[in-house]
Design a protein that fits this description.
Elements lengths: L13 E5 L3 H12 L7 E5 L17 E5 L7 E6 L5 E6 L7 H8 L2 E6 L2 E6 L5 H8 L5 E9 L6 E10 L7 E2 L4 E6 L7 E4 L4 E2 L10 E7 L13 E3 L6 E4 L5 H4 L6 E10 L4 E11 L6 E4 L14 E6 L12 E2 L4 E4 L23 E4 L1
The structure holds calcium ion (3 copies).
Protein name: Cadherin-99C
Membrane topology: Single-pass membrane protein
Subcellular location: Membrane
């Protein structure tokens, strides 16, 4: 809690004011005690010793500081009244913030008088997130105007800055409960597939800049076989950009049951509070392979380096028109080598010099 108390200065019969600012007023007050009055002071005779304004306490850099979480009801400045002075408090308006907002912000502070003591008391916790939500401003500092009124002298106004210090109340959060991204198998190496900064937030309001710090990527220990670090990397840690690191081939990944990867990613705020989450990446098949013929009698060869030759034969009368169903050893089957199951269209073409009715050879 920050509470500064007035240091009373005995003024005697002469009261002095600085001509330009409060600091001078304090200096002038010292001269008054010696009945001196330099040229930069205004000196008046006090008819009554009490007929004067009290002085504000010495405030370093003329700036008070309170945390945004300070409890409502906490006093932040105390002034001992001389008895004849009367103090008022207002909020200085500045910047582009409109008047109605200043009126509402003024209600965060109250000046109370308890006996001969004036106290500025926080009427409401100056929660930076709450203020941003209400007024859409990232509040950093306010200026309090304290004015002393006495019967026979001009009003004296003092400006005191009040800095609201941010408190790290929230860890980084992800905007979606489950982060997932589909990536086509033909995505080129070096392509950015996702920027974590677009999917992350930190509820803390930081008037000095970005609250989020760096992003990170570590091993996915829960299922090391599906850790996507072999295929993806984080390039820009300030943006959390995930980049393709290794060629993605859906058809090569299917036999390994590896068309889904997981990345253990993290987001930290500038205070070092870190939140981890799992990014799921699904590799999506694209139509990058042609159809293939297949025959149940051929062995399954995954890398297709060993062709299987099958001869199909059908015997037809010369003038027959219609479906060929008596093909030996079986009907001709073909399929899309992608998993997209694109509809296939068959055609029969003769090589140069061949005559229909002899035989048709198809090669795997
Ligand atoms: Ca934070
Ligand atoms: Ca905060
Ligand atoms: Ca494919």
């Amino acid at each position: 809690m920050l509470l500064l108390s007035l240091q009373m200065t005995s003024l005697g019969a002469l009261k002095c004011y600085g001509k330009t600012n409060d600091t001078l007023t304090r200096k002038c007050a010292l001269f008054c005690t010696e009945n001196d009055c330099p040229s930069y002071c205004i000196c008046v005779n006090d008819k009554s010793q009490n007929n004067a304004c009290s002085y504000l306490p010495v405030i370093p850099n003329n700036t008070l500081q309170v945390k945004e979480t300070i409890t409502a009801g906490t006093p932040i400045l105390s002034i001992n009244s001389t008895g004849s002075d009367k103090w008022t408090l207002a909020l200085q308006r500045s910047g582009v913030v409109d008047g109605s907002i200043w009126n509402e912000l003024s209600s965060y502070f109250k000046l109370y008088k308890f006996g001969n003591i004036y106290e500025i008391i926080l009427n409401q916790t100056p929660d930076l997130e709450g203020i941003f939500e209400r007024f859409a401003i990232r509040l950093k500092q306010l200026t309090l105007i304290l004015t002393c009124k006495i019967a026979s002298n001009p009003d004296q106004s003092h400006s005191v800055h009040l800095e609201i210090l941010p408190v790290n109340e929230f860890a980084p959060e992800y905007k979606e409960a489950i982060l997932k991204q589909n990536v086509s198998e033909n995505t080129k190496i070096g392509t950015v597939i996702l920027m974590l900064i677009n999917l992350t937030m930190d509820r803390d309001v930081n008037p000095d800049g970005r609250e989020l710090g760096d992003f990170g990527m570590t091993n996915y220990l829960f299922d090391a076989m599906r850790d996507g670090k072999e295929y993806f990397e984080m390039k820009d840690f300030s943006q959390g950009s995930i980049v393709v690191k290794k060629c993605l081939d859906f058809e090569a990944l299917v036999p390994m049951n590896s068309t889904r990867f997981y990345l253990n990613v993290s987001a930290s705020d500038i205070h070092g509070v870190t939140t981890y989450t799992t990014l799921t990446i699904n590799i999506v098949d694209v139509d990058d392979l042609p159809p293939e013929f297949y025959y149940s009698g051929c062995p399954v060869v995954l890398d297709k380096t060993a062709p299987c030759h099958v001869a199909y034969e059908a015997l037809l009368s010369l003038n027959y028109i219609g479906p060929m169903t008596d093909i030996v050893p079986s009907l001709i089957h073909a399929r899309d080598m992608d998993t997209l199951n694109t509809e296939l269209e068959f055609s029969l073409e003769l090589s140069a010099g061949e005559k229909l009715g002899i035989s048709i050879w198809l090669q795997f």
